[in-house]
Amino acid sequence: MAVTSSNDTFVEFERVQKSYDGETLVVKDLNLEIPKGEFLTMLGPSGSGKTTCLMMLAGFETATHGEIKLDGRPINNIPPHKRGIGMVFQNYALFPHMTVAENLAFPLEVRKMSKSEREAKVKRALDMVQMGDFGGRRPAQLSGGQQQRIALARALVFEPELVLMDEPLGALDKQLREHMQFEITRLAHELGITTVYVTHDQTEALTMSDRVAVFNDGRIQQIDPPDTLYESPKNSFVAQFIGENNTLEGVVKEISGDHALVQLDGGELIDCKPVNVNEVGQRTKVSIRPERVEVNKDRLQDGAHLLKAEVREFIYMGDVFRTRISVAGNDDFIIKSRNAPDQIRLKPGEQIEIGWLPQDCRALDA
Amino acid sequence: MSDTEAQAGPVLAADGTPLKRSLARALRMQKLRALALIAPLLIFVLITFIAPITDMLLRSVKNEIVVDVLPETVAQLQSWDVDSTAPPSEAVFSAFYIDMVLAEEQKLHTRLGTRLNYEKTGLSSLFRKTGRRVGRFDTDVYTDQIVALDPAWKEPATWAAMMADKADRGALPLTARTWDRWADYLNSEGKDPAKTKVEDFLFTALYLDLAAGNAKSVADPRIAAAAAAAPGFETVDIRSQFAKADKDWLDPAVWQTIKIFSSRFTNGYFLNAVDLQKGPDGIEPRPESQQIYLMLFKRTLFMSLVITGSCILLGYPVAWILANLPSRTANLLMILVLLPFWTSLLVRTSAWKVMLQQQGVINDVLVWLGIVDDAHRLVMINNQFGTIVAMTHILLPFMILPLYSVMQTIPPSYLRAAKSLGATNWTAFWRVYFPQSVPGIGAGSILVFILAIGYYITPEIVGGTTGTFISNRIAYHISSSLNWGLGAALGSILLGVVLLLYWIYDKIVGIDNVKLG
Ligand SMILES: Nc1ncnc2c1ncn2[C@@H]1O[C@H](COP(=O)(O)OP(=O)(O)OP(=O)(O)O)[C@@H](O)[C@H]1O
Ligand SMILES: [Mg+2]
């Protein structure tokens, strides 16, 4: 899916910029191609311009500059109601004065569908989200999760090819959220709909998406499938934002192919994989995932650089152990280890040595 | 858990008292405090609002003046047939004579005349004229004949002593009643009945008692002597005395009016308020020339509806814009909406006079533009149009405010959702936004309509004759014609109409569908 060739591109942002006040750019030079049938998630901190992008696509905001194309046609001048894009709002926006069935029939009614056809489609859509018995209720008589499903059904009932969802699961509790994540991806893939999904929550983004676009400061920082994003973040923002991450700061000492030697600010030397550093003397932030840190020297290759550390805290979390250690001046360095029978349980105050495989340690921009 | 469920009887609190009782005790303090907080307002409202309104409403059915001023007449009229084409008997006139003299002494006859004039024109002047004459009726004939029997009759002290005696009172009931009314009046004036000259009407009352043969067996020799002599007295025809004062007293219609309105309570005011009247054959429509109230009620309702409608039409877009602007701009514009509240009502209404009159600003501009011919300037004031324009302007904020506060609570995402589902701007508005703003329309309409239906200053100033409301008529009866009963009846009907409309509104729209914010 990640590979996009221009002939099956369905949605395209071309050098899109957006400013609300004429002074600051909320979206800066956005380029994005979404192929048909893809589930793309926009992930980013609050205020990074995700909703703005969605609203431009839906037609409720106009791009200040650049072009948005849908199925090859520029849509800048098409009014929202003619774009045929399904949308799920953060607060669901179910019409409170209509019953669930009337809500679902609304898009069909404005499309002048016959009554029998409408009823059949509404019934099918309700069954699709397992809410068949709730047609006669008002939105206010439904729980949050049920409302969410109705909002989803309403966005899908008129069979749009593109569905936009703006943090639809924001208001749900963890279990319901996980259930709904599954439901949404299942439906999207079953119906073959192109989906643009906005969320704050990185786990949601990783578990649901074909590709994730990480937004910051009005730009896409990285757009990749979840595994690539997690394992090979392209810059320190993405590394920090996605998953848990340890950072150490230092200067590049040696660099050759996909191996670099970095001297940390405390003087220690470590092996890394250079990602966006390319010359000796450059400052860098090295990023290591907590689960890739190794305390057992035997598992490391010979001659690997080791760092001395002191255990600060040991947290038992059931399936994993979480150990906070102090290393190279960083007091918040985390190690995660699986709760296996042979796993060592470290005690606070213990002196240890840690290390990692060079390819797990990425030297990123400072 | 299962323990408490299995336990029989009421649930107990920790100290063993039933939970219900200890909860009630805990809440009592709270209720008392709440009551204490509202008490000042409650007392204020009771004294200054509820009590006067109740009194006012009672006035619409109260009718004590006739029976209070003419008690003897009303009693005698019992035996007179209302449908009769002949005037009542001499007995009625005699009673009426006594009532009238007493009323005249107390200056009550003019008030009674005014009251009866509401029901039959001409009665006011009839009573006033007769009041002037009634003291000079020839009833001194009785006085002279009785005094001739015994000069002691002339002494007020004789009368006072006689009227203190139980047996004498029993023998002379009419005299006793008349004396009591007379004595009450004198006492209230600070005079002593035992020292005030005995008037002719008392002798007349005494003669009537004696002639009726009530005093045959009385012990008092003076009364017995008079009783024995009475059948031989020269008599006076009181009926012709009245006829001489004004021949209208022989008109049975006058007596019909008195008899019909002699009960303590009457529906006469209410009938009058809906252009009906009580005739000898029951309820009948008033003469065509006097029918105005139904027309006024209809006009008031119609114009209030038109005003409410124009307020919705003009206020809805304004509220919409206010609700969709950034709050800073909205607050600024809100001040403009509220600006009319800061100007006196009279000033605003008079301003409309300046604007709309035939030599006014609008006509001048139209003439200047050549749209209207100078000879045919538009008549826009002192008619319904002027009232509707001015009142729409004055009541508009009452529509905008609730609309605005309801619209503010409608998130813009509903409109966006509707559009994303394929609705055009209009469909999205009409199917999604408008239904949610209906509570605001409801609240605004109720406010405007109820204010409009009772408005009177503006119609008074700009309404002319075709643009006045029922409330102008009420104000007229309260402050000019002083027919408070009719004013109260009109007011009660207005109140009833408003409550009825409120009830209908509740049935159709539902009163919980009204939101002020
Ligand atoms: N209607 C608007 N007028 C002016 N500025 C706006 C408007 N909407 C958004 N902004 C600004 O644009 C920036 C991006 O907003 P946007 O809503 O796209 O963020 P977001 O990524 O969706 O954030 P969140 O995750 O909190 O929803 C923010 O700084 C916001 O203040
Ligand atoms: Mg957002």
UniProtKB/TrEMBL annotation, chain B:
It holds the Pfam family BPD_transp_1. One of its GO terms (biological process) is transmembrane transport. It comes from the Bacteria. The keyword Acyltransferase does not apply. InterPro entries: MetI-like, MetI-like_sf. It is found in: Cell membrane. This is ABC transmembrane type-1 domain-containing protein. It comes from Pseudodonghicola xiamenensis.
